[in-house]
Amino acid sequence: MQYIFVDESRINPTNRYQLFGSIWFPRELQEKIRSQFWQLWDKSFETRKSELKWTKVSKSKLSVYKKFVDLFYSFPKTDFRYVVLDRHAIDYKKFHDSNEELGFYKFLYFFLSRNIQKDRQYKEIEDVYQIFMDHRREDEVGKLSDLKDFINLYFGHRSDSSVVRNIESVPDSHDSPEIQLIDILLGATGYCWEGFETSPVKLDLIHHICKVFGVGSLNKPTQYLTYKFNIWEFKLIKNV
Questions:
Q1: Could you tell me what percent of the chain has a pLDDT over 90?
Q2: Is the pLDDT confidence value at 187 over 80?
Q3: Which residue of 62, 91, 161, 229 pairs with 165 in a disulfide if CB–CB is 3.0 to 4.6 A?
Q4: Whole-angstrom Cα distance, residue 127 to residue 59?
């Protein structure tokens, strides 16, 4: 089985770009990932009451955050995949019944289904997928089920568990090393796409991420078949 953990950028009206970030890895790696994450955590922090977050990157924590980036890079068969959307080009009224939440799930559907398709075509992965979303509201449970069904239908399957077995909510990111890492890398990617340069410490961490993952920049899409760190710019027809 393959695991996918997904988070999205917190939309600020002043920000131009919306991003989805995700980590993809075989289920058998999870125990190792979590064990080594908490080992590093306990060496770096006094308690587990906090969590890694892009908004908490500071000079005093910079070296620690770099160590967590290095740790996750070290795991084989682990991909970090992101999609970037220009909010100025999204026409919710015309294409999404003036419903931003509907648009959110449509974009998420495209992101997940096309990346699973890429796995099946180029990595020849035939496993089923289990998808975990960062905390969702109770009224979104049915929408996650619908999302699963639509992804399965994309692959021509009507069985509930043919490609995606289930999509469920992660109740608390404090307990999820995967969601915490996504938050760091998603925040760094969004920071670059927005063109922010106000924090030398965050720019230092961004430089470290680029160096570790071998990408020239976080504000440009990578090649289609780039693995380990992939950025997809979802291009839409802009409103005129």
A1: 70
A2: yes
A3: 161
A4: 42
